[in-house]
Design a protein that fits this description.
The chain has eight helices and four strands, in the order βαβααααααββα. With about 120 residues, it is of the alpha+beta class. The chain has one domain: Glutaredoxin, CATH 3.40.30. It has a four-stranded mixed β-sheet with strand order 2-1-3-4, with helices on both faces. Helix 1 links the parallel strand 1 and strand 2. It is globular, with a radius of gyration of 14 Å.
């Protein structure tokens, strides 16, 4: 089963959802805002792809963090704590198939290469 994780009003998530629908890919949508995101789920993703690929350092949530908080994010553990506190710093969408992270963010070329 393919699951797209994100926030419905995010422009990048909207592009990914549109792409999946246009290409006839059946998927489930997991809404971080309504359904939350668990520590276990994030820890699993971090083991697969690392905090650098999962942490979104662009956008207003990251930009509004104090410099001391930004500087404290140095590994999976510190990134996990921040992502649990502020899910908007998770790069989205996160495309997962059978527990394996296929992509973070959205790129038409990357999605096409996945042959979903």
């Amino acid at each position: 089963m393919i699951t797209l994780h994100g926030i419905p009003n995010c422009g990048t998530v909207k592009k990914a959802r549109t792409w999946l629908e246009v290409h006839g890919t059946v998927y489930e949508f997991h809404d971080f805002k309504k359904q939350g995101v668990s520590e276990a789920l994030l820890a699993g993703w971090l083991k697969q792809i690392g905090w650098q690929k999962l942490l979104k350092k662009t956008g207003p949530t990251w930009g509004q963090l104090p410099d001391s908080v930004k500087a404290s994010i140095k590994d999976d553990t510190s990134a996990l704590a921040l992502m649990l506190e502020k899910p908007n710093v998770i790069k989205r969408p996160v495309l997962v198939k059978d527990g394996k992270v296929l992509a973070t963010g959205f790129s038409e070329a990357d999605y096409h290469a996945l042959k979903l």
